Amino acid sequence: DAGITQSPRHKVTETGTPVTLRCHQTENHRYMYWYRQDPGHGLRLIHYSYGVKDTDKGEVSDGYSVSRSKTEDFLLTLESATSSQTSVYFCAINPGAGGFGLDEQFFGPGTRLTVL
Amino acid sequence: SQQGEEDPQALSIQEGENATMNCSYKTSINNLQWYRQNSGRGLVHLILIRSNEREKHSGRLRVTLDTSKKSSSLLITASRAADTASYFCATSSGGSYIPTFGRGTSLIVHP
Hints:
The complex is a heterodimer.
Chain A: E1 4-7, E2 10-13, E3 19-25, E4 31-38, E5 42-51, E6 54-57, E7 64-70, E8 73-78, E9 87-94, E10 106-107, E11 111-115
Parallel strand pairs in A: 2-11
Antiparallel strand pairs in A: 1-3, 3-8, 4-5, 4-9, 5-6, 7-8, 9-10, 9-11
Chain B: E1 5-7, E2 10-14, E3 19-24, E4 31-37, E5 43-50, E6 55-58, E7 61-66, E8 71-76, E9 85-93, E10 96-101, E11 105-110
């Protein structure tokens, strides 16, 4: 898994509660991404980061925020979880050796989040 | 919004047969990638093909790219039960090199 871990791996929470998912990499790569995967939609980009404290929005960023205070950690926060945020969340990194996004992405194992 | 769309959505074959899945996209691309996802796992990168390339091979995998038709195909030869997975194409285009994923093809290989 290219040194990528996600925590927690499974979480059940209630509507309105805050939730933080963590992505940790051991390779010191610059580019990190958060995706959600839902049946019928494939993977959709939530937020991405191109360095410490450098982040930007993806296709489905509403209701999510991110932070990256260290190269190795990229946090995804749901400020007030809703049932529509029930999904599987994947973190990915891009080595970027060929330039931003010119190389393949490596994915973490995923976090299954259920919001009741 | 999806840039690439895989076809078929589902494919069921016998072990030893070849499996072909296609990806069509709408706008010019920088590169196109294919990924595999086993049930309950993260995606695994298979092949990246750049817009100026027409064919790439990796083991039993063959990817072609036809930019005039805005399409790509992934061929898995002599399939095995272990090839059972979902396969996704991902394209990057314009000034953004962040890949956009399709909805995937679900492949089942029967032993």
